[in-house]
C-alpha cells in the first residue's frame, strides 16, 4: 500500500475543517448507515496508526474499510474531518468512575491505558502527538483539546484521593500519574506483537501491582 496520498489523496486532505475549534465537518444528506460509519471510523484509525498523516487519505481508508470512496465523500468534507471524527469517537477518553478508592481508580486507569496503548487508538495517539508538532495548522487544536481532557480527568482521580485523606496532602498528582501512565506506555511499547493478547489478559494484575508499588512502595499491597 502506497504511503503517498497522490493527486486524489491531496484533494481529499485539502478540505478546511468545519465548525468551531476544528470540529468534524460532515455532509448533510440521507440518513447514515451506522454499520458503514463504524467500519470507516475503525479503518480510519487503523490507517492513521499505520501510516500517519502522510499516508492518510480517503482512498486508503475506503480500501481498508471495504467500502467505496463515495461513501466517505457523502459523510465527510475532508480527510482531516474524517480523522478528527475517528479519533474523537475512538473511546480513548479516560472513563474512571469515582468508587471512593484512589487505588482502585488508578488500577482501572492503568488497565484502560494499557489496552489503549496496545491497540490502534494508542498508536494513533502517538502519531497525533508527532503530527501536532509537524503539522500544527492541522492538528494542534485537536491534540491540545484531547490531551487537556485526559490530563484533567486523570488528575481528578489523585486530587479526590488527597481530599479523602487516602493520600498525603503534599502528594503530587503529576508524579503519581507520570509513574502510573508512563509505566503503562513503556510496558506497551516493550511488548512484541506476538504477546499483546497475553499482556492484555494479565493487564489487571500488572496494573494492580504497579499502582501498589507507586502508592505503597511495594507490589501486591492490595
SSE topology:
Blueprint: H1 6-13, H2 34-51, H3 58-65, H4 69-73, H5 79-88, H6 102-117, H7 120-134, H8 136-163, H9 173-189, H10 196-201, H11 203-216
Helix pairs in contact: 2-3, 2-5, 2-7, 6-7, 6-8, 6-9, 6-11, 7-8, 8-9, 9-11
Question: Would you mind describing this structure in some detail?
Answer:
The chain has 222 residues and is mostly helical. The protein has two domains: 6-88, Tetracycline Repressor, domain 2 (Orthogonal Bundle); 102-216, Tetracycline Repressor, domain 2 (Orthogonal Bundle), CATH 1.10.357. Helices cover 65% and strands 0% of the residues. It is built from eleven helices and no strands. It has helices at residues 6-13, 34-51, 58-65, 69-73, 79-88, 102-117, 120-134, 136-163, 173-189, 196-201, 203-216. Helix 6 packs across helix 7 and helix 9 (173-189) packs antiparallel against helix 11 (203-216). The longest helix is centred in the C-terminal third of the chain and has 28 residues, at 136-163. It is elongated and about 55 Å long.
